[in-house]
């Protein structure tokens, strides 16, 4: 392998790595227009974007969409909705961006293979190919945790608003005016669906399935049961808020209990070996004369 070829492959790899780092920290959709007012949060944004990965994956969108099939595309849309449609991403944009990462991974694999680092090329290509699903999964998990954290306070304020005399739907809209978190966004989307004539039970069941939050699922189940049994909504919301806070506190205690063994493992793996090295070194240095006599 001659010198100019190695230099060209190295330069190409540096360029590809720079593009990969930039694209791993952005979805390329930050400059799209905001959704029109009145629609549900996260919807109504244009799909058009101008990233390098969109150009790389544009030609593969059609074949990949056909290969995935309607069922997989529906599941992908549900996962994107569960993540709150971050940056207005849609299934088509996701597939195009995933195709771009696959092309970028193939280029990195070829360049590193040419340089004699096949293992590093395979690892980098695997990371790039798996980046979009991992990114979407991470956004969904963080959104679910945020919903769990916001739910107790949201229910408290909702209960006060209902006791003040407003109807349930009007109270939901009133509380959402003072919050812009993921829970308020989901409630706004639910209110928008109810304004279009979708039954309340179906809206909340879809919302429960979309958020996949255990605390929110308990809230929806208790709310629907209270509605069927004719329990006053204010009393039901107070009881539900108390139950959610108790479950949330129990979950926090469980997480705190799990943190102890993790801290002990980290101390054992990092601090103990270092302390042993220092002790053994001190013993060896203090008895250097004895070892000189033995040698």
TrEMBL record:
Keyword Transport: no
Keyword terms, alphabetized: Cell membrane, Membrane, Transmembrane, Transmembrane helix
Cleaved signal peptide residues: none
Subcellular compartments: Cell membrane
Record-level GO cellular component terms: plasma membrane
InterPro entries registered for this protein in UniProt: DUF5936 (IPR045980), T2SS_GspF_dom (IPR018076)
Pfam families: DUF5936 (PF19359), T2SSF (PF00482)
Protein name (Swiss-Prot/TrEMBL): Tight adherence protein C
